[in-house]
Amino acid sequence: xxxNTYTMRYDxxxxxxxxxINDGHSVIVxxxxxxxxxxxxxxxxxxxxxxxxxxxYTAPIKALSxxxxxxxxxxxxxxxxxITGDVTINPSAPVLIMTTEIFRxxxxxxxxxxxxxxxxxxxxxxxxxxxxRGTVWEESLIFLPQHMKMLxxxxxxxxxxxxxxxxxSVHKKSFEVVIEKNRPVPLHFFYQCQGKIVDSFKxxxxxxxxxxxxxxxxxxxxxxxxxxGHLFKNDKLPCIYFSFGRKRCEYLxxxxxxxxxxxxxxxxxIKGLYGxxxxxxxxxxxxxxxxxxxLIERGVAYHHAGMLPTLKEVVERLFTSxxxxxxxxxxxxxxxxxxxxxxVVFDELRKYYGRYFGTLKTRDFYQMAGRAGRxxxxxxxxxxxxxxPHRTSSQELYEIIYGRPEEVRSRFNTSYATTLNLYKRYxxxxxxxxxxxxxxxxxxxxxxxRAVKLLSSKVRILKELGYIKENAVTEKGHFAxxxxxxxxxxxxLYEEGVLEHLSEIExxxxxxxxxxxxxxxxxxxxxxxxxxxLHRETEAIxxxxxxxxxxxxxxxxxxxxxxxxTPCLEAWMRKERFDKVISYTDADEGEIIRYFRxxxxxxxxxxxxxxxxxxxxxxxxxxxxxxxxxxDAEKQLRG
Length: 639
Description:
Blueprint: H1 12-22, E1 26-30, H2 38-50, E2 54-59, H3 62-76, E3 80-83, E4 88-89, E5 95-99, H4 100-108, E6 117-122, H5 134-142, E7 149-154, H6 160-171, E8 175-179, E9 187-193, E10 196-198, H7 201-207, E11 212-213, E12 216-217, H8 224-233, E13 239-242, H9 246-255, H10 264-280, H11 287-296, E14 300-303, H12 309-320, E15 326-329, E16 343-346, E17 350-352, E18 357-359, H13 362-369, E19 381-387, H14 394-402, H15 416-426, H16 438-442, H17 445-464, E20 468-469, E21 472-473, H18 475-480, H19 487-495, H20 504-515, H21 529-552, H22 566-573, H23 578-581, H24 589-606, H25 613-626, H26 633-638
Helix pairs in contact: 1-2, 4-5, 13-14, 19-21, 20-22, 20-24, 20-25, 24-25
């Protein structure tokens, strides 16, 4: 069977990458968002299928994995499968899509099926620089099986050659670098500052320094509705409007209630399409869907992680139908999901980076700005930045837009589970692994010494707590090696027999408390006597582990348990309706679903441990009680 994935002529950089692939080389491609990197991935997949070879495609987030599954399934049909923590569909397919964490876990397993796969595609490989999860990409690259060729797709990064040279040094295989700096659809930058819309940086600088009263600039409002009116009048829709807060996205969408961006035909069409999609996804009568309907009928929508996953998918489908003219969304909409627009707007130029609020990085700016300009439709893309001189100086603005993209840095910091899996294979020689890392390749001696000390400290804790004895991994160690990211406290509870004595509902509550991260000021519920006791027990275990970690200088510390969503999960596992469940918390609907799914993922990991059949039977029942209806991600994806 021939799969026709691309009918247009290849751009020179695409052709160059494809030629290298055809010659049997691994390739890394660095190109701007929207340049057409996916075409190269499709060539690898098509070529592998023609030659009866298997290929793995990794994506950084589950939403992107699901999106790629849908997209590729339309091209390749039943040749596509997907595995994430939430979903397993057609896992023996010749083309398997998965999150990078799933692939990392596979490469660390002594026995895996990777010998059947000849290619690995790493999408968004610059995620190696992510503070919390970047180590997963680095571990995947270090332990990549020698027989597998690799295609790595990256945003524009200045040290791409250094990155490629490191991979060559580790694997000693032919590895080609393809760099494309230009976009097929150029970007035209505009600014809203002091209530005016201009396309000159010099004019923004002037506006940022005029009308001073004493030391503080007297600001004139940058009205979002005035900006949308300008875009509508000048035929610059559809528009993706990026805002870095969920509530802000919804507020901005409501502020557009006075606009009608659709003609009569479009209004009727979107009303019918929205109704049929809501019926298909079981959203008819759903409060949040009804709330969104009047905006949808005017060509306006919002999209963020706090929404029901099914409602997010409905909005995505409406946007691809070209009937949504303005979508207010958080940055996840920019990540790999193929939904370009004519215009991108930045509500502000500062965001929360996990540990601090800071000016937007140049790389992140262009990841989002790259959604502007639809190939084959637009001659240019338009990017509007709303500038508040009190929050972003003209110098900061210049560095965001005209500065050099940030280099990719190593975040190598193996988890306890990874350390245990390495110890199974290499024993005390596991320290020989660190010199293979990108961290070792590019960092100075003092940082290298710190990294080795950190790894040594983790091994020491594992030995002190009995995960490693007499240079061998114990049963508790084998348990911990399967539970990535939450190893120690859960394994201590396992060893003490606590898990065996919990009911199905209590097991679900425990795993939910382990993954949940409360927002500042989040509502705390009243807990029953049994859960209060469990709370005290988990608190004591984490405190003991943290004490050891602090003594040895290990960061980050093991995670605490938070029982904020306990009443929600208990009600859900007792078969209450979801609209009733959400009344027990101030968390968003999408947030509740995401954490319930994460709890299911932890429960599934327990099934792969040496736990007793009695415990595993309860775990299976707990999964069944949680993973139903709106929580069942696989059901949504199959639909």
